[in-house]
Specification:
2 domains, two-stranded antiparallel ribbon, alpha+beta, 7 strands, 5 helices, single chain
């Protein structure tokens, strides 16, 4: 017969998994929406260029191509860190954040292969960004919402920094920051801490003047 503790753990894991499924669905839907938009724009660009070509307007066609080239550079927000798994996590999460009108500033550079497993890397970065997005969405002023990400390598350590805007009133108890949402959210934070301890790493969280920041150091 299963005890109450085992039942509680199963329930929390189930809630955590359901939350992940919902987030993954939203991310995929957002990517599909972007692809549909790109397809529509691509079709329109072709029609404009064909019209210029048909009427022999080579100067106009050249100018249009130059403007299109500038536009493509400005909308290219794809992060290329050098690590495929890290890029997949960052691009899916930050794309979702941008779609929710959250200002995003991200820079990442990492080796193609690291000693941290893909699953563990996904747990850390995915949960940090999920929490950042959730905190930003609690701010009524969209202009105040932002997420900043920096990932790099320092002295054989993988450094991960995620900071975001946060509403006032974030509390701390027993060395842990309390969230307004219980269940899967809190379980995600604990998962991050467990993975970091697994690799003998370091976690530092700070909350000052409407900004919540998390730093993670993982031995390579």
């Amino acid at each position: 017969m299963r005890g109450p503790l085992s039942w509680l753990v199963d329930r929390r894991i189930s809630a955590f998994q359901n939350d992940l499924i919902i987030k993954h669905y939203d991310e995929v839907q957002n990517i599909y929406g972007q692809m549909r938009g790109w397809r529509h724009d691509y079709h329109n660009h072709i029609q404009v260029m064909k019209a210029h070509l048909h009427f022999g307007r080579s100067a106009e066609l050249d100018a249009y191509l130059n403007e299109l080239d500038k536009d493509l550079v400005s909308v290219d927000t794809i992060i290329k860190s050098g690590n495929i798994m890290l890029d997949a996590i960052l691009n899916s999460k930050l794309s979702l954040a941008a779609a929710r009108n959250i200002g995003v500033n991200a820079k990442a550079a990492a080796p193609g292969e690291v000693s941290i497993s893909d699953i563990d890397l996904c747990v850390i970065v995915g949960n940090l960004l999920d929490n950042a997005i959730e905190a930003c969405m609690k701010l009524e002023d969209e202009a105040a919402r932002f997420i900043r990400v920096y990932i790099g390598v320092f002295k054989d350590q993988l450094y991960i920094s995620v900071s975001n805007s946060v509403a006032a009133g974030l509390k701390r108890s027993d060395g842990r920051y309390q969230t307004t949402k219980s269940g899967s959210h809190g379980f995600g934070l604990m998962r991050v801490d467990r993975v970091v301890r697994k690799y003998g790493g370091y976690v530092n969280r700070q909350n000052e003047e409407g900004v919540f920041a998390t730093e993670v150091m993982l031995p390579m």
